[in-house]
Design goal:
By secondary structure, the protein is an alpha+beta fold. The chain is built from 20 helices and 18 strands.
Length: 616
């Protein structure tokens, strides 16, 4: 280290150039690094569905379930698979070991192993769905004049526009129109041709089923066969032959009228008193939420400009949450830096303080650049780690700076003082840095979701302290060798008499009673730990107050959707007196999009959820 310091002083222009280059790289990395609210956690559970059209349950079991289940279990990290096999479909509920950290990479490997299985050519691609994941954004498409069917069509078009953005992985629609075929039968006409209502129901029902008939085995593999559904429109139902009158066929339209209507029992979704359809968006992993948020808003505004009597709002929008959260943490970081710099200026003097303060941007930007190349995200945990290290990363620079100043005041020239300081302090400063890093190492071996959440903290702290060591050894001596001055003063400052008198009396008394002092310290430690265990709740992170409220309700008659709707309106009317509520959405007979709400709502007419957003 001594030789490196000597070279950095001799070629100080190169040292300063490299420092500026690192800061530029840090700024570049700050622009590109993914920014999120918290570390992205993928729960150790996923449901994978494979559709095999035309295959009966036994054929699905033989040609799909067994080989795919074997492939999934071959992946390291998979604990067990709970499989459901039905006609036309196999569902694999995959559970990982709870201490796995890289759950997403394991699920990626599972999907890769499934793709490598030799399945029949007509089996559809696997569909993976983690029901514990909450959408990153929820858009609402609402109107007071359009029907649910028209809103659904608009929502589907909007989903297609959003799907063109590369970083959007999945879009699902909640509250879409549920259209049903209604057959109004003329009983007199039906009796005339000798059919009963049950006969008519069976004819229509069997004509509309897609029935798996079995499997054809060839040398090229297996292929399912099926009788396709006959009905693609209302007119197709009208044209069903139900009998003969001589040589003339009797059609459904001869005994009934057929029409397509919305299901009166479908869940009701309302936003700010308007009928609504919701779009749930999931983002790709490892992306910058703030950049993607701007793209989504541009698409939303462009799509909205072509519509009339339709409102497109953001029910929840994670990119805005990320921006707000990061801005708050940035503010805390800046305030911390300012306070530390002020203290440095008070304690060290202007020249020395400038030399130490300049190390701040170099260390912080160098840490951000390192995080970018280590595939880390910029989120609350990493920024909290930077805040934790604010006081630590300047310690090394202060030690070297003060040592240089001491030797200069003792009469040595600036170059000699800088080199001597590094020679004397490089090993102690290194030991101090390593012991601080060692205190965070246990956090790096924690498994499971907790380990994934907390791992960014020790990585960021270790990188920042490591960079601060090299900055203290290579850059601070450059400032000392060229900018520090002799600061010897004529009159030596003395400690106030009352402080000196206090220590003169108490220190000897403490030194004479070491056992009593050690015992008292141990008792104080145990009492503190006991109070902490009893009074302080244990949680990974403090519960964050959000500006939303959920109300889950169940009407007295769970089968009465009309009564439940009136009940919801009464609740909203009571809460309408609060001016802080500016957004309201609710469901009747189903659940709202699952944006972080862990409790599930049953799909019954009398249950639902109310959602309020507050301006606080």
């Amino acid at each position: 280290m001594f030789k490196l310091t000597q070279a950095s002083i001799q070629k100080f222009k190169l040292t300063i150039f490299v420092s500026v280059l690192i800061m530029g790289l840090g700024i570049y990395s700050f622009v590109l690094i993914p920014k999120q609210d918290m570390p992205e956690i993928v729960p150790p559970f996923s449901s994978i569905q494979l559709i095999a059209p035309g295959y009966g349950i036994n054929d699905v079991l033989e040609y799909v379930t067994e080989p795919v289940e074997k492939a999934i279990l071959s992946v390291e990290g998979v604990d067990y698979v709970d499989t459901i096999t039905l006609d036309n479909v196999a569902i694999f509920n995959v559970f990982l070991f709870v201490d796995e950290v890289n759950t997403q990479s394991i699920f990626d490997q599972v999907m890769s192993e499934i793709s490598a299985v030799s399945l029949p050519s007509d089996v559809k691609d696997p569909i993976s769905n983690n029901i514990l994941m909450s959408p990153h954004a929820v858009f609402s498409v609402s109107s007071t004049t359009l029907t649910k069917e028209a809103l659904t069509e608009i929502a589907e078009n909007f989903a297609n526009k959003l799907g063109d953005i590369n970083s959007v992985s999945t879009i699902s629609i909640t509250g879409s129109s549920d259209m049903q075929v209604y057959v109004n039968v003329n009983y007199q006409a039906l009796n005339t041709i000798g059919l009963t209502m049950n006969d008519l129901v069976n004819i229509i029902q069997y004509g509309g089923l897609e029935i798996p008939m079995g499997t054809i085995i060839t040398q090229d593999g297996a292929m399912g066969i099926k009788i396709p559904a006959n009905y693609t429109s209302v007119e197709a139902v009208n044209q069903i032959v139900i009998g003969m009158n001589g040589n003339v066929p009797i059609l459904v339209s001869d005994v009934a009228t057929v029409e397509l209507r919305e299901n009166p029992k479908q869940p009701l979704y309302v936003e700010n008193e308007e009928t609504t359809v919701f779009l749930e968006l999931f983002f790709e992993s490892g992306i910058d939420f703030t950049v993607l948020g701007n793209e989504l808003i541009e698409v939303q505004e462009a799509f909205q400009s072509d519509l009339t009597n339709v409102n497109i709002d953001q029910m929840t929008f994670q990119p805005d949450v990320v921006k707000e959260s990061l801005n708050q943490v940035y503010s805390s970081l800046i305030i911390g830096i300012i306070l530390v710099v002020v203290i440095i200026f008070i304690g060290l003097g202007i020249r020395n303080a400038i030399g130490v303060a300049i190390t701040f941007p170099l260390i912080l930007l160098g840490t951000i650049a390192s995080m970018f190349f280590l595939d880390q995200d910029l989120q609350k945990v990493t920024i909290a780690a930077l805040i934790i290290t604010i006081g630590i990363i300047v310690d090394n620079a202060i030690v070297i700076s003060e040592s240089i100043q001491y030797h200069i005041d003792q009469g040595k020239n600036r170059l000699e003082a800088s080199l001597l300081s590094v020679k004397e302090n490089s090993l102690p400063v290194l030991s101090s840095s390593l012991t601080t890093i060692a205190a965070f190492i246990p956090f790096m071996v924690i498994g499971g979701a907790t380990g994934k959440m907390i791992r960014a903290l020790p990585i960021t702290v270790s990188v920042a302290i490591g960079i601060s060591y090299f900055v203290a050894m290579l850059l601070v001596p450059v400032f000392g060798a060229y900018f520090f001055k002799n600061t010897r003063i004529k009159k030596q400052k003395t400690t106030p008499q009352w402080i000196q008198s206090f220590y003169n009396k108490t220190l000897p008394a403490i030194i004479k009673r070491p056992k009593l002092i050690l015992l008292s310290s141990l008792i104080l430690l145990l009492v503190s730990l006991g109070v902490m265990v009893i009074r302080s709740p244990f949680e990974l992170f403090p519960v964050e107050d959000d500006n939303v409220i959920y109300i889950n309700y169940k009407y007295s008659d769970v089968n009465d959707q009309v009564g439940a709707h009136a009940y919801v309106l009464d609740i909203i009317d009571v809460l309408s007196e609060f001016d802080e509520i500016y957004y309201t959405a609710y469901s009747v007979g189903g659940d709202l999009p699952n944006f972080g709400a862990r409790s599930q709502i049953n799909d019954v007419p009398g249950e639902g959820r109310i959602f309020f957003r507050l301006d606080v």
